[in-house]
């Protein structure tokens, strides 16, 4: 039996790059999908609104773990060759699209109604109305909750461990099975997540306070 | 695609699925009650407790909110037995859920307490309202109203994230699915059905909470 030493610690620490890589993929994919969802949710087309509402409901109303399982076990059935990378990436992108879409929808709607009406009165096209008037203002509101949501994404990547993707949590399981020192191993694992997430949490809270102070003035 | 869906084996196991659903509901409701108790105590400690206690509570909240639920679950299930605390998967799962919810709900409840302007209580005192009336109508009801949406969506999130406890085989709905999968090999069908059950649960709870809100907490709010 091995004991928990520097090599074991480094093994878990090195797995953090896969946690980070998966988080970055989920965030970038989720940002693109989330923008599409947020724009659909606030569009004038009833069908788009209904479809995006359904998408959000589906992904916010079911467990992320089951979404991961459906993609991981469903893709081979539908004839796609799939590995844990793609399964985890796809599930996380779809899931964060729904959550970011919902968050950003709120930010778009928080732009005062008068701004929309003024843009319409100036007979700006939809594209210019969004790009030049609404979205830049929504962006300022969106920064703090978006940074806060990144913490959720990083934590969410831990579920990829369950389908065998070797990120921090899975690395911890592997080391635990070899050393039988769960207290040390899972403390190290938790500490790595904490180091990744805490700065983001603090940043989000600070931005939130500053934003509130700016509004109160 | 040349796959034929066979839901027969899944539906034949409906008593198991029903039992798993019941355990998921039970775990979530118990964890909600336990988590609320922890949160009320922590919110009190944070607003009125001594400095050291506040520091402990803040550390608890930050650690829980910045680490994945799965890791917390592993910690309770694997690490604590290693130092002599033995318990079943079910108890470990429930404990992890209570501890997790407690951290999130503390901040929600604190926001509720802080949402009551002091002037309201002073006004109630000036109107000569009795203490229990002040607590009930001026403090509790408006505070509940303010935090109700956040609290209920936290409950639904908790219920959905409880799927993770299947990893330590805590006999919840997702564990039932995993067992069925190894018996019947119809994994796609099973996970479709179980996902739909979670969706129905989430929609039902959110409809129920909306009703409770309308019946119990809606009154003219002029602000």
TrEMBL record, chain A:
The chain crosses the membrane at residues 20-39, 51-73, 85-104, 138-163, 183-205. One of its GO terms (molecular function) is transmembrane transporter activity. CDD domains: TM_PBP2 (cd06261). It is a multi-pass membrane protein. It holds the Pfam family BPD_transp_1. GO terms for biological process: amino acid transport. Residues 16-204 form the ABC transmembrane type-1 domain. Keywords: Cell membrane, Membrane, Transmembrane, Transmembrane helix, Transport. GO terms for cellular component: ATP-binding cassette (ABC) transporter complex. It is found in: Cell inner membrane; Cell membrane. It comes from the Bacteria. Its main location: membrane. Belongs to the binding-protein-dependent transport system permease family. HisMQ subfamily. This is Amino acid ABC transporter permease.
UniProtKB/TrEMBL annotation, chain B:
One of its GO terms (cellular component) is ATP-binding cassette (ABC) transporter complex. It is found in: Cell inner membrane; Cell membrane. One of its GO terms (molecular function) is transmembrane transporter activity. Residues 21-209 form the ABC transmembrane type-1 domain. The chain crosses the membrane at residues 20-42, 63-83, 146-170, 190-213. The keyword Transferase does not apply. Keywords: Cell membrane, Membrane, Transmembrane, Transmembrane helix, Transport. GO terms for biological process: amino acid transport. Pfam families: BPD_transp_1. Belongs to the binding-protein-dependent transport system permease family. HisMQ subfamily. NCBIfam families: HEQRo_perm_3TM. This is Amino acid ABC transporter permease. The lineage of its organism: Bacteria, Pseudomonadati, Pseudomonadota, Betaproteobacteria, Burkholderiales.
């Amino acid at each position: 039996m091995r004991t928990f030493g520097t090599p074991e610690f480094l093994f878990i620490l090195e797995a953090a790059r896969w946690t980070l890589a998966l988080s970055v993929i989920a965030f970038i994919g989720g940002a693109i999908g989330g923008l599409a969802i947020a724009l659909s949710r606030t569009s004038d087309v009833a069908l788009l609104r209904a479809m995006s509402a359904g998408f959000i409901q589906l992904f916010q109303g079911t467990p992320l773990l089951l979404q991961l399982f459906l993609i991981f076990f469903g893709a081979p059935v539908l004839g796609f060759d799939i590995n844990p990378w793609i399964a985890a990436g796809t599930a996380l992108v779809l899931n964060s699209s729904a959550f970011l879409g919902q968050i950003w929808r709120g930010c778009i709607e928080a732009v005062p109604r008068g701004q929309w009406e003024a843009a319409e009165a100036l007979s700006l096209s939809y594209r210019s109305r969004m790009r030049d008037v609404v979205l830049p203002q929504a962006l300022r509101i969106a920064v703090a909750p978006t940074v806060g949501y990144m913490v959720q994404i990083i934590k969410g990547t831990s579920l990829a461990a369950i389908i065998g993707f070797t990120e921090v949590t899975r690395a911890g399981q592997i080391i635990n099975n070899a050393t039988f020192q769960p207290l040390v191993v899972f403390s190290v694992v938790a500490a790595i997540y904490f180091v990744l997430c805490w700065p983001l949490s603090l940043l989000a809270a600070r931005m939130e306070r500053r934003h509130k102070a700016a509004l109160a003035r | 695609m040349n796959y034929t869906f066979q839901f027969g084996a899944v539906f034949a196991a409906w008593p198991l699925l029903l039992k798993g659903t019941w355990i998921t509901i039970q775990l979530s409701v118990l964890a909600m009650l336990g988590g609320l108790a922890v949160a009320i105590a922590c919110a009190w400690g944070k607003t009125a407790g001594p400095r050291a206690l506040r520091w402990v509570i803040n550390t608890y909240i930050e650690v829980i909110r910045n680490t994945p639920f799965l890791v917390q679950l592993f910690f309770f299930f694997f690490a604590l037995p290693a130092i002599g605390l033995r318990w079943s998967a079910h108890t470990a799962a429930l404990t992890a859920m209570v501890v997790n919810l407690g951290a999130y709900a503390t901040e929600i409840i604190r926001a509720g307490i802080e949402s009551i302007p002091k002037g309201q209580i002073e006004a109630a005192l000036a109107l000569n309202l009795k203490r229990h009336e002040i607590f009930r109508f001026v403090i509790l009801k408006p505070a509940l109203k303010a935090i109700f949406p956040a609290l209920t969506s936290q409950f639904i999130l908790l219920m959905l994230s409880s799927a993770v406890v299947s990893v330590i085989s805590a006999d919840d709905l997702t564990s039932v699915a995993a067992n069925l999968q190894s018996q019947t090999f119809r994994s796609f069908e099973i996970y479709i059905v179980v996902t739909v059950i979670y969706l129905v649960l989430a929609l039902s709870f959110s409809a129920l909470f909306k009703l409770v809100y309308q019946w119990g907490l809606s009154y003219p709010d002029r602000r």
